[in-house]
Each structure stands twice: as C-alpha cells, then as structure tokens.
Amino acid sequence: MRLLYSDAYRSFMDGGFGTTRFGRNDTGLRLGRARFALTTSLGELWSAHFDASAWDDKDRSPVGVTEAYLQFRPYPRAGYRFRLKAGAFYPPISLENRAAGWESPYSLSYSAINTWLGVEVRTIGLEAQLDWLGTRTGHDFDLGLTGGAFAWNEGAGVVLADNGFMLHDRQTPIFGRVGPAGAGALPFQQFDGRAGVYAGVEGRYLDRVVLRVLRYDNRADPTKIDSVSGAIAWNTRFNSAGLRIESGTGWTAILQWLDGETIIAPPGMQLEWPFRAQFALLSKRFGRQTLSARYDRFEVDSTAGDDSQSGHAWTAAWMFETRAHWRVALEWLRVRSSSYNRAELGGPPLATETQLQLAVRYAFGSGLH
Q1: Fewer CB within 10 A of the end CB, N or C, for the chain?
Q2: d(CA 78, CA 222)
Q3: What is the share, in percent, of the chain residues with pLDDT greater than 90?
Q4: Dist CA 141 CA 210 (whole Å)
Q5: What span, in angstroms and rounded, lies between the C-alpha atoms of 224 and 274?
Q6: Strand, coil or helix: what is 340?
Q7: What are the residues facing 241 on neighbouring strands?
Q8: CB 335 within 8 A of CB 311
Q9: What separation, in Å, do the N-terminal and C-terminal C-alpha atoms of the chain show?
Q10: 10 Å Cβ neighbour count for 302?
Q11: In terms of domain of life, where is this protein from (predicted)?
C-alpha cells in the first residue's frame, strides 16, 4: 500500500502527460501492487515461472500476467553453462530491476530507462544464453552471450512517442493496455509476420562488477497497419549498455545508457522519434536499511517537429526491512521536463513534478528477495 502526495499532471493511465505514476488527483492512500508469483521445478533441468499483478488502475482486466515462461538449465559442462527460456519475460537489459517481480531493490520508482522497458518491452518468444564460467577454472571473470527471438512487440514505441519517458513502477501486463479504456495503446501485438531479435554480451568480474551490452530490434514493418484495430507497426531498435559495481561494504553503483529510435511509415509519410536516456545510481546498505539516490536524463526527438521531450529527474529512497516479510519504504521523486504534448493541451511545456510516497509491503512465501 502507498500513502502518497503528488503535484504531478494527470497520470498516463488516465490519458494525461504526467511523468510519474500518480497525479495530483491520486494523492492519498493507494494500492501499490498486489502480486502473485510461482516458481516450481519440473524435474532436475526444467522450471516454470509465473508472475501476475493487480495495479488498481482500471486496466482491461483486474489482474494481469507480466511474465510466464519455462526455463531449461542443464548442468554446467567443461566450464560452460547453457540456459534456454521460452514464454514471456524481460530481456536481459536492466541492472537496476533485479528483485523478484522485476522490481528495484533501491527505490519504488524505476529509472526512466527501466520504466519504459516495463511499459513497452517484453520478450514473447525464445532466449538462449551461454556462459563461460571462468571463475570455476581459476580466472577472475565470467563471460556470457545472449540471443533472443520474439514476436508480439510491434506496439513498442507508441507510448514513448506520445508520452515520452516517465518514472514509475507500473509494468504493463502481457494482455494489458497503456492509457484509458477505449483509447489506450496495446504494446504487445503481432500482425506483420516478422520476428524481432536481440543479442548481447555480459562480463562479470569476481561477481562484484557486471558489464552488460545489448542490441535490440523488433524488426517491425513500419508500413503495416492492422486491418482490425487500425494500429501501426512501430519499428523500434536501440542499443543499451550498463555497468554495476558492488563493494564488500554494502555500496552499489549503477550506470546505464540507452540510445535508439522508433519509426512508423504509413502511406505517404515516414515519422521518426530518436530517443536516449542515461542514469547514475548510488546505494548503501546498512544492515536492514538501504539508502539510494539516482539521477536520470532523458530525451525524445521528432522528425515531425512535435512529440518532443527532454528532462531530468532526481530520486532519493530509504528502505527498511523490519522483519522477514515486512518492508517499509519512503521515496522522494522530482522530475523536471519539457514536453510538446503538454503545450498542445494548453499547459506550460516546462513543468516540475514532485511525488512523495510512503509504502508498506507484506510478502508471503519467499519474502522480499
């Protein structure tokens, strides 16, 4: 549950252009997330994973599935380890959202990069990963290669073009929408018959330093229009790179960068929205308490001269695990951004939005990890 104050513009789920999850009309007591998750072994090498949540924001269904997949993980052999995933899950991009339910252990609201990934990007397909386990053969580092093929992600890009980057923790369910009923975007669609792909590499040094680089391309045909819904296929591609460093004294530092573009080309025109975002996060753990601070910068351009956005944000958070199943969190978030779409609605294009949240969570089963 969340007790919150917000002076932000109307939320994106209500059709507004606010950059936070909750707008000024949401101040008070709200549901943060109600989540049910299941992980079970299917023999020695297979496992099944299922994650569903309720967000209390009038989506198409009261409960939505965010991840559901099977995983095949045979025993390591000759210093190598292989893993195969099939179903719906997040591609291996984020170094921030590493907790259960693809949540961040550092703050309630995700960075601008990972907020967008939670809203519009999901692998619905296959992913294979091969790791060279150098630390098991006398070396100081491990290396991994990852490749994925997926479908049902032709809507990725429309929210970024229309709303720009945001900072919140609301993940779009696989069959869910973004925006108000009857007018929201559906990110997970397939109607052009083309599969998307991504490939990445990861290096780990003594399990304290992680460097991750990935190229993503949904390979959507930007000229295709769905004859039933009228939706356009958004060709979205980007490069991402991230570095996470952890010390033995409880310090964590994360740097992440993303740069790409999304394109549509309906008859007679072609529109492009280049986008880029970066963040730096510093966190310190004191026993059962964690203090974190993050700085974000983000920008969306438009070749049509509109739908552009630029801004930056500061986040400060304190988290306290009171007992095995309880967690209390306090977060302050301030976003300052300029948005063409806000000006189109008659508001000031430059706005400063502040959100303060006090959250209490209770977890059954495996707890908070």
Answers
A1: C
A2: 45
A3: 80
A4: 10
A5: 20
A6: helix
A7: 213, 257
A8: yes
A9: 18
A10: 16
A11: Bacteria
pLDDT computed for residue 4 by the predictor: 95
User: What is the C-alpha R_g of the chain?
Assistant: 20
Where is pLDDT greater, at 121 or 365?
Answer: 121
pLDDT at site 61: 76
Evaluate whether 353 touches 335 at the Cβ level (below 8 Å): yes
Residue corresponding to tokens 């924001």: 57
pLDDT for 285 equals: 96
High-pLDDT (> 70) share of the chain, % = 97
| Residues 197-214 pLDDT 10s | 999 999 999 989 999 999
Domain 2-362, CATH homologous superfamily name and number: Porin (2.40.160.10)
> Residue 31, class by beta-carbon neighbours within 10 Å (0-12 exposed, 13-18 middle, 19+ buried)?
exposed
Alpha helices in the chain (DSSP H): 112-120, 158-163, 340-344
CB burial of residue 156 (10 Å; 0-12, 13-18, 19+): buried
Contacts of 228 (CB under 8 A, 6+ apart): none
**Tokens encoding 33:** 């997330």
Mean pLDDT of 322-329: 88
Distances from the Cα of 156 to the Cα of 187, 189, 228, 341, angstroms = 5, 9, 18, 19
pTM: 0.95
C-alpha span between 361 and 34 (Å, rounded): 9
Measured between alpha carbons, how far is residue 81 from residues 64, 167, 331 in Å? 33, 35, 39
State the residue for tokens 């009923």.
181
Model confidence at 323: pLDDT above 80:
no
Q: How far apart are CA 255 and CA 242, in angstroms?
A: 6
pLDDT for the residue numbered 316: 98
Distance of CA 321 to the CA centre of its chain: 24
As to burial, measured by CB atoms within 10 angstroms (0-12 exposed, 13-18 middle, 19+ buried), residue 38 is exposed
What confidence tier does 367 reach under pLDDT thresholds 50, 70, 90? very low
User: Which structure tokens are listed for 49?
Assistant: 């994973």
